[in-house]
Amino acid sequence: MYKAPVEDISFTLKHVAGLKPALDSGAFGDLGEDLVDAILSEAGRFASEEVAPLYKIGDEHGAVLKDAAVTTPPGWKALYRSWIDGGWNALSGPEEFGGQGLPTMLGVAALEMWNSAAMAFGIGPTLTMGAVEALDKHASEALKAKYLAKLVSGEWMGTMNLTEPQAGSDLAALRTRAEPAGDGTYRIFGQKIFITYGEHDFTDNIVHLVLARLPDAPAGTRGISLFLVPKFLVNDDGSLGARNDVFCSGLEHKLGIHASPTCTMIYGDGFRGATPGAIGWLIGEENKGLACMFTMMNNARLCVGMQGVAVAEAATQKAIAYANERRQGKVSDYTGAGMAPIVHHPDVQRNLLTMKALTQIARAISYSCAHAIDLARVSSGDEATHWRDRANLLTPLAKAFSTDVGVDVASLGVQVHGGMGFIEETGAAALYRDARIAPIYEGTNGIQAIDLVARKLPLGGGEHVHGYIAELKAVADEVRTSNLQGFGRTAETLDRALDDLSEATRFLQKLLADGRLDEAQAGATPYLRLISLAAGGAYLARGGLAEQNRIALCRFFAENLLGEASALKERVIGGAESLSAAGKALISA
Amino acid sequence: MYKAPVEDISFTLKHVAGLKPALDSGAFGDLGEDLVDAILSEAGRFASEEVAPLYKIGDEHGAVLKDAAVTTPPGWKALYRSWIDGGWNALSGPEEFGGQGLPTMLGVAALEMWNSAAMAFGIGPTLTMGAVEALDKHASEALKAKYLAKLVSGEWMGTMNLTEPQAGSDLAALRTRAEPAGDGTYRIFGQKIFITYGEHDFTDNIVHLVLARLPDAPAGTRGISLFLVPKFLVNDDGSLGARNDVFCSGLEHKLGIHASPTCTMIYGDGFRGATPGAIGWLIGEENKGLACMFTMMNNARLCVGMQGVAVAEAATQKAIAYANERRQGKVSDYTGAGMAPIVHHPDVQRNLLTMKALTQIARAISYSCAHAIDLARVSSGDEATHWRDRANLLTPLAKAFSTDVGVDVASLGVQVHGGMGFIEETGAAALYRDARIAPIYEGTNGIQAIDLVARKLPLGGGEHVHGYIAELKAVADEVRTSNLQGFGRTAETLDRALDDLSEATRFLQKLLADGRLDEAQAGATPYLRLISLAAGGAYLARGGLAEQNRIALCRFFAENLLGEASALKERVIGGAESLSAAGKALISA
């Protein structure tokens, strides 16, 4: 059973991702280490003791649709209630609306724990948090007054309605219509698919944020507006009014996260005799919906990255525990009676250390991204720009690298369990199933890689990323000058990886400058992995410099896994031509 | 829907894995290319048209246990009947017992197709084939006469009973007992788990091969004997007699291959009032059971490797088809109306080409292994030794590399489908689930890697593997001297990978010579991948030399994926110390 790694999380926040210096400098007012640790510890307790025990029943029962109503698995509604009663939904929400206004870092660290305990549970509040942020930034005062406090507390949940059958990664193809009703409201018509927690029994109202087109809107993404469409209309006194014309018409039968209802939502179909048209309110300006949605999406991308970290952590814990229990064979370093616990076998250790190192790296990258978001919020001028750029640079890494790690680590977790891993009762297989969605939703990892190359490498006139690499280089220098034996060849391999990264970065920037976008895109996925591994190596080293007992894992990573960097660089620099040559044969006549 | 890649299979058999020169030299008598192609084509038709349509129903229904009887999914029994009526079970069986005695290569190629169409179907006959081989090599004439013809035709199916709860990878821990009854038969008592097709309704008898210990047997693996235990006793006239005391007490609830019943088998428990003790017959000599079982296991390992190839092929086909249908976004090389099919996006092409290249490599390695088995059978003296060594060397590659490829490619397949990939109806997720067992059963891939390093590198006094590397080197030379432009940097990267392989091989051989087995084991998994990638690169190049239109994929592999070789070499050579240092922290106090 999952046990929240509170100490590891706290250490990574403070000593790797930068929270301690920020706290010491007073960047977050009077927030101190004690409070941070108290919150993490309480969140860890809730995740381990309250959420995790409901994982299996959630996976087995799944969400069930009947008569347009969705029932969540036994115990899940009570769990959600107890979770919001604990104030967990409000952790990083705006104080003006009852939130605790704590740094994103803390929200994200807690989110990791909810997701490790049950990813199908953790994904719901992620959408509510995104809705809060979008409303807080873009909605009218009237809408904020009516909806925000209840979304912040979690009394109501929020959803994001982007995808339509023909419009997934490419929102330009969106067709859902919004017609002005003449009274300041709109009538929404259309079908949305893959809507997470689009319908459920956790809360008595659900606040849908919906992308749609106005009648006179320009084609493409510049003609998309964002609307708030509540399941139940809300009276001025805050009580619930009429049922709105938005209904769940189907649930997807998914590989994993079964307890999370993935809904097809029908807007404005006159369901059950309603006058056709779901009543909605515009958020922000007409035709600027995508910008509003991006507020949500950036946040959501980091949150999905946390799911990658979370499932990797859960899989790693489970595999280490099993490897210490299961006995097979003999091994020279085990002197006990009978067969050795398989954790003594070098090949099993290789799997477990790989899982552990990748999990820690993904966590460090994701927390660093959260930290940048926090510092951008509390700083101003050039410093704010710097941290905003940093957050933007790290978001695709946090999303894509972490979720790839989630899949790979969950797969290794099954492997370590041997035959038992393939049996559903063991639980390792469920993590392998759950993990698979995270590289897909909130922008596939391929889209993240393209975003990284095409939009993030140019930040700060192309210099921001080099500043980041220089910071990572400084860590390698520090390892070298530390003269700590246990680091082995860490400084050397890290230097080499960072040089490779630097070279690959300049190569891609040159392609972009020359307008050779296809070639740059061809190298995007290996580049994202390259920068993530190199950064991860530096983060592990920073951890090792701060705490002696973390050096061995850092060295394992540097001497066993970081070597991939040079192959990735070659792929970025020398791979596009052959890709293009071979790719043509894939296209049907 | 899966369409058997008959042309690709035929090409790989003939021009990459060595079938054509062998046919030309008359190694297989009057077997000619025409017959080979006719068989492949008919097998392909059966797999695509008869097996594949029953995949989904098999996955959804699964096998069901009631009153110790297992019912396979609707249509599956009839499918099996029609499959054996087509003579497919007898393809490579011994002619003396009604088999067609065709080369293993052909059996394996057909097996790939059954498994691509439905892995849960393909695994059943795999076990029967293993039983046939073990009986043919080790059983008494009386047992052969009674059982072999019906196993060869497929009228009865066979099983392998090795695993017990405490004895998985380590068979020394086996507890099942066999007591001599004094009449030449034995009574078997014990519990076996994870028994594939241990009970089912395909055939009216099932022939279990069971590992058990005689009362006076030495401890460990030198005290294990192999027994034949039929579900129904067989009268001398071949008719079925009494029900034997062996029953299925449970089915596993698995991640994938749901239609394949994975049984807990209880031997000798006096079930339903039977006199306790399952009646069995000794196969081969007392206490030599493991050697007999290894006959089966080597074969089964290659067959499981084919499952890796098979699922990768199915996933690749599905992903390419989807990428040609699904339209999202714009891309410069697509000039058609509306959004471009996603196959035009370079990042999608990278995924698809990676899938395609890895699948072809795994296929080439596996067929080369089958070819070596065939040539060992038809040759004698040094030549036979050479080919036996080759088969032994390639077996762990065929099993472990191919099944890792199966998982990785199925995962990429889900990714290419985007959100649809996570929906079970699409079918990509089912392949991802099915694929996951193959790296585990028939010896985990970690065990395969250790087998490769500890038992296969020493073959031929340590020289066999270097001879193999020299053959691969010759392919690189041929590419270079061919002066074919399309190969790009293939010769150069292949040479480099083979040099890395050579160095890593000598390093591990030195460790073995020095008795440093733990360190050698620490490098086993990266070594297995290194030799597989290097060999795979050479096989793709051989294909490209034989057929112009195969050059582009070879080059993509060489310039994009083969670069991993140098990192793998470093891991083999420089990774053990840090692994050992960090590994200790994994062990619970």
Any overview of this molecule?
Two copies of one chain form a homodimer. With 589 residues, chain A is of the alpha+beta class. The first copy, chain A, has three domains: 6-153, Butyryl-Coa Dehydrogenase, subunit A, domain 1 (Orthogonal Bundle), CATH 1.10.540; 157-287, Butyryl-CoA Dehydrogenase, subunit A, domain 2 (Beta Barrel); 445-579. Chain A has 20 helices and twelve strands. Chain A has helices at residues 6-16, 19-24, 33-51, 55-61, 76-85, 104-117, 119-138, 141-153, 289-325, 346-378, 381-416, 428-435, 445-456, 464-482, 490-513, 517-522, 524-546, 551-561, 564-574, 576-583; strands at residues 64-66, 69-71, 157-161, 177-180, 186-196, 206-212, 225-230, 232-234, 240-243, 246-251, 262-267, 278-283. In chain A, the strands form three sheets. In chain A, strands 3, 4, 5, 6, 7, 10, 11 and 12 form an eight-stranded mixed β-sheet that branches. A two-stranded antiparallel ribbon of chain A has the order 1-2. Chain A has a two-stranded antiparallel ribbon with strand order 8-9. In chain A, strand 8 and strand 9 form a beta hairpin. The longest helix of chain A has 37 residues, at 289-325. The radius of gyration of chain A is 24 Å and the shape is globular. The N and C termini of chain A lie far apart (52 Å). The relative contact order of chain A is 0.09. The mean pLDDT of chain A is 96. Chains A and B meet through helix 9, helix 10, helix 11, helix 12 and helix 13 of A and helix 9, helix 10, helix 11, helix 12 and helix 13 of B. Chains A, B: It is an enzyme of class 1 (oxidoreductase). Chains A, B: Residues 38-155 form the Acyl-CoA dehydrogenase/oxidase N-terminal domain. Chains A, B: Residues 160-266 form the Acyl-CoA oxidase/dehydrogenase middle domain. Chains A, B: Belongs to the acyl-CoA dehydrogenase family. Chains A, B: It catalyses: 3-(methylsulfanyl)propanoyl-CoA + oxidized [electron-transfer flavoprotein] + H(+) = 3-(methylsulfanyl)acryloyl-CoA + reduced [electron-transfer flavoprotein].
